[in-house]
Design a protein that fits this description.
It contains 10 helices and 4 strands, in the order E-H-E-H-E-E-H-H-H-H-H-H-H-H. The protein has 228 residues and is an alpha+beta fold. It has 2 domains: 76 residues, Glutaredoxin, CATH 3.40.30; 137 residues, Glutathione S-transferase Yfyf (Class Pi), Chain A, domain 2 (Up-down Bundle). Strands 2-1-3-4 form a 4-stranded mixed beta sheet. Helix 1 links the parallel strand 1 and strand 2. It is globular. The relative contact order is 0.14. The C terminus is likely disordered.
C-alpha cells in the first residue's frame, strides 16, 4: 500500500533530512520522491512555490495539500501526528528551541559557502565563522546526549544533517572546527547513531557529496591536496 504522505526530496538537501528525521521519529509512514534540483521537473515547479525541497504531499478528499519549507512541515507533523513529542510543552522552552533551530539554519548558510567556495581565503574565513558558531552552541549544551538532555527534539533534527556534512569533510582534512568542544562532539556522535538520522539519507550520500564538491571545484578539496 502506498504511504499516505510523500516527501519530495533531494539526496543532499539538509532541509529534506530534517523532515525525514521528524517523520521517522514520529513513526509516520511516508514515501519519498527524489528530484534533480539542477533539472527540476515541470510537475515539481507547479506545486513548489519557491522551487525548493522539501515538499510534503498530503492526500485530501478529492486531491492533495502541499506543504513547503522544512520548519513548516516539522511543525505540522508535531501538531497533527501521534508518536514522540519533538517540542517541549513549555512555551518558553519551545520558543527558545525554535531560536536554536534558526541558529542551525544560519550555520547551514555558512556551510553552503564553506563547501562551494573556490577561494582558499574565503574557505578559511568561513572555517573561523563555523568554529565560532559551534563554540556558541557548546556553551548552550548540557550533559546530553541530545540538545535538551535525554529527549530528542526538533533542534536535534536540525543539527543532525549539519554534522553529517563533517563526516565527509573529515575524510578530506581535519579543519579543527570541533577541537576543544567536547559537548558538541558528544552530541554529534549521539545524533549519528540515531536510527532516524541514519535513515534520512541514502547509503551513497558520501559519494554524492564528494561528487558535488568536485563539480564545484571546491577549495575544500584543495585542503586535502595541500595536506598530502
Amino acid at each position: 500500500m502506498t504511504a499516505p504522505l510523500t516527501l519530495i526530496s533531494h539526496h543532499l538537501c539538509p532541509y529534506v533530512q530534517r523532515a525525514a528525521i521528524a517523520l521517522a521519529e514520529k513513526g509516520v509512514p511516508f514515501g519519498r520522491v527524489y528530484i534533480d534540483l539542477a533539472n527540476k521537473p515541470e510537475w515539481f515547479l507547479r506545486i513548489s512555490p519557491l522551487g525548493k525541497v522539501p515538499l510534503l504531499r498530503i492526500p485530501q478528499h478529492g486531491g492533495e495539500a502541499i506543504l513547503f519549507e522544512s520548519s513548516v512541515i516539522c511543525e505540522y507533523l508535531e501538531e497533527t501526528q501521534p508518536g514522540a513529542k519533538l517540542h517541549s510543552a513549555d512555551p518558553l522552552t519551545r520558543a527558545r528551541h525554535r531560536g536554536w533551530m534558526e541558529f542551525g539554519s544560519a550555520i547551514l548558510s555558512d556551510l553552503w559557502i564553506y563547501e562551494t567556495t573556490q577561494d582558499a581565503e574565503v574557505l578559511e574565513t568561513k572555517r573561523g565563522v563555523l568554529k565560532t558558531k559551534f563554540t556558541t552552541v557548546e556553551a548552550e549544551l548540557g550533559d546530553g546526549p541530545y540538545f535538551a538532555g535525554a529527549d530528542f527534539s526538533l533542534v536535534d533534527a536540525v543539527f543532525a544533517p549539519i554534522f553529517r556534512y563533517f563526516d565527509v569533510f573529515d575524510t578530506i582534512s581535519d579543519a579543527g572546527i570541533f577541537d576543544g568542544l567536547p559537548r558538541v562532539t558528544a552530541w554529534r556522535k549521539a545524533l549519528a547513531a540515531r536510527p532516524s538520522v541514519k535513515a534520512a539519507v541514502t547509503e551513497d550520500y558520501p559519494e554524492r557529496l564528494m561528487a558535488f564538491l568536485k563539480k564545484h571545484d571546491a577549495a575544500l578539496l584543495g585542503s586535502r591536496r595541500a595536506a598530502a
